[in-house]
Specification:
Blueprint lengths: L4 H8 L1 H11 L10 E10 L5 E9 L6 E8 L4 H13 L3 E6 L16 H13 L4 E10 L1 H10 L6 E7 L10 E2 L2 E2 L6 H6 L6 H4 L2 H14 L6 H5 L4 H7 L6 H4 L15 E8 L3 H14 L5 E9 L10 E2 L2 E2 L8 H14 L11 E5 L4 E5 L8 E10 L2 E5 L8 E6 L17 E2 L8 E4 L7 E15 L5 E9 L5 E10 L17 E6 L5 E5 L4 E8 L27 E6 L3 E6 L7
Parallel strand pairs: 3-4, 3-5, 5-6, 6-9, 9-10, 10-13
Antiparallel strand pairs: 1-2, 2-4, 7-8, 11-12, 13-14, 15-16, 15-27, 17-26, 18-22, 19-25, 20-23, 20-24, 20-26, 20-27, 21-22, 21-25
Helix pairs in contact: 4-5
Length: 583
């Protein structure tokens, strides 16, 4: 399979690099004469930890005000001052607090592990200050989005609302996705723990990380030997690998199951169709409504990547000319939301309903009450095989047929599952491996929206496999517009907290839904294409199917090739605009 490894490796680093570009930006700071600034606040917690913060208030303001809190791991004084001053300019006490061990905070840096406690300690401190009216709103993206949700696990009475952008869930979206550990996040631990700020030289050493990935891939060594191949021990990498289940370690970091029942504050989530962390952002939303059906949780989602969602989008995204109406101002909407919740102001105009999404290609927004209602109807497409042709068919096959796929997991001359959407629009797809299922042409323009979800049914000769799915629109001109993708481990399909191995030779059912939500207006004559493949490449663990801890498997465990019999009983469900006749 001929794929530009350098290009793809850089694309898969988007999740990390986009965050860091945001953190490293040089910001134009307002004149300090208008503010009361304390950039060396030390917050001593009741449990003996000291955290640092920047606090900015507007001069001449006598009344007590609510606080806008931004909780930050990418310590950067200019960024912190910019955020705090912006909040002060909009009628709030601006506060940027650093995570434990960062900037002026003494002690070790321990990402993810203490936010449920530390963020609430900061809120507790804020509520006690003479300038505080006792109310706090939080906002921010990625790690800062995670920190907001961490705070809600043990909800502080002073926390009145959160606005998480592209919020991460440790153990679900990073450093693994659907229980598959990915190397795109590898250097992040060095980047944020090597010093009190950020280690930009390490993070930006793309040649080192590309060499590490390729050397590991070619060596056939176990995934847990990656740091030895790099030459620098990575204790955080090793610690995370020791938790392949979504177990109590990960569950302790954010709300889990019944915890969501008690989150009764308004929430505004913002993410993008091409946000690497979208599965995490939407998992929060789904779980919040599952356990608290009366939740006041709003969503804005459009054609944004991880960085773009935090600012409001860009005119051109990975080769796609974004609809002009899709571009928003994330920070402005955030403070309009704060005014709505904390000051009785108007609700942001875009929030006409709970779920607010932009339809790519139609240059319009739609507003519905739930993710399930993004379209009027749902169509089940079966992965069918008729006379050798593989079809996405809206008709259930009369007879179950099995389609064979063989993957030599020991082979290093080719890799499988080119799923990453960069560019979004491709001129051609490499069809050397994988199975490709195509619909008939649509006889009219239709919109397709929601998650790529469904069930795969298969018989394999091993105990496990990692699966990749990618969904495309084939336009009338023959281009491939990528809509969504899924990556996940079959043995965790039923329960991400408990591995259940497959039984070789038996028909297994593998449900999936934690994919990328999207919305797209398809042209008349367009078709949908689904690529089904096994994940085998230098950018993630290689699951050799023995049933052992995947991080400890080596190429010696590959054994005979993986043989899969995919059933035509497999299907995907998609939301499609109401129409009597689509084909």
């Amino acid at each position: 399979m001929k794929i530009n490894l350098t290009k793809l490796s850089m694309a898969l680093l988007c999740l990390i690099i986009s965050i860091e570009i945001f953190a490293q930006q040089k910001f134009s700071l307002p004149d300090n004469d208008h503010y009361i600034i304390n950039d060396s606040v030390m917050i001593k917690t009741k449990y003996g930890i000291t955290l640092s913060a920047v606090v900015v208030r507007k001069k001449g303001v006598k009344e007590k005000l609510p606080a806008a809190l931004f909780y930050f791991i990418y310590s950067n004084k200019n960024r912190s001052l910019m955020e705090a001053k912006y909040a002060a300019d909009h009628g709030y006490i601006g506060i940027v607090a650093d995570t434990r061990g960062k900037r002026l905070s003494p002690g070790p840096i321990e990402p993810y592990e203490h936010e449920t406690q530390d963020v609430n300690a900061v809120i507790d401190w804020i509520a006690d200050q003479s300038w505080s009216d006792g109310r706090v709103g939080m906002y921010g993206g990625s790690y800062s989005g995670f920190a907001q949700w961490a705070a809600t696990k043990y909800l502080h009475p002073a926390l009145k609302t959160i606005v998480p952008y592209v919020a991460a869930i440790p153990g679900l979206g990073v450093p693994m996705e659907n229980n598959v550990f990915i190397l795109a996040n590898y250097q992040w631990a060095f980047y944020i723990t090597n010093n009190k700020y950020t280690d930009d030289s390490v993070n930006n050493d793309s040649a080192r990380w590309r060499r590490m990935r390729n050397n590991w891939w070619e060596s056939g060594l176990a995934y847990n030997k990656v740091d030895s191949i790099d030459g620098t021990p990575n204790p955080w990498f090793q610690k995370w690998l020791s938790h392949p289940d979504y177990d109590a370690y990960w569950q302790s970091m954010v709300p889990y199951k019944e915890d969501f029942k008690h989150i009764n504050i308004p929430v505004l989530s913002i993410t993008g169709y091409y946000d690497d962390g979208q599965v995490s952002a939407l998992e929060y939303l789904r779980e919040h409504y599952k356990y608290n059906p009366s939740a006041q949780h709003y969503l804005i989602i459009g054609p944004y990547d991880h960085f773009g969602a935090q600012k409001g989008g860009v005119a051109e995204l990975r080769g796609y000319q974004v609809d002009s109406g899709a571009l928003i101002n994330t920070r402005e909407i955030t403070f309009q939301w704060f005014d709505y919740i904390l000051k009785g102001g108007k609700k942001p105009a875009l929030l006409e309903d709970k779920i607010n999404f932009q339809v790519m290609g139609a240059n319009k927004w739609k507003h519905v009450s739930s993710l399930e209602k993004m379209e009027d109807q749902h169509i089940r497409f079966y992965l069918d095989s008729v006379s050798g042709k593989k079809l996405l068919s809206e008709k259930k096959p009369v007879k179950e047929v099995f389609m064979h796929q063989r993957v030599n997991l020991a082979d290093r001359t080719s890799f499988y599952n080119d799923y990453y959407p960069d560019p979004i629009i491709k001129k051609e797809l490499d069809t050397i491996n994988g199975l490709f299922f195509v619909t008939k042409p649509f006889n009219q323009s239709v919109s397709v929206s929601g998650a790529l979800k469904g069930e795969l049914k298969a018989i394999i000769n091993k105990k496990d496999m990692d699966i990749g799915l990618s969904l495309y629109e084939i336009t009338p001109s023959g281009e491939y517009f990528q809509l969504s993708y899924f990556l996940g481990r079959a043995s965790y399909a039923q329960d991400m907290s408990k591995r259940k191995l497959l039984v070789a030779g038996e028909l297994e059912t593998i449900p999936f839904y934690r994919s990328r939500v999207f919305s797209r207006q398809l042209q008349k004559g367009s078709r949908l294409l689904l690529m089904l493949n096994i994940d085998k490449n230098p950018f993630a663990q290689i699951n050799y199917g023995t049933g052992k801890d995947v991080s400890k498997e080596t190429v010696k465990d590959a054994g005979v090739p993986l043989d899969i019999q995919w059933s035509t009983g497999s299907y995907i469900d998609l939301g499609v605009s109401d129409s009597k006749s689509l084909f």
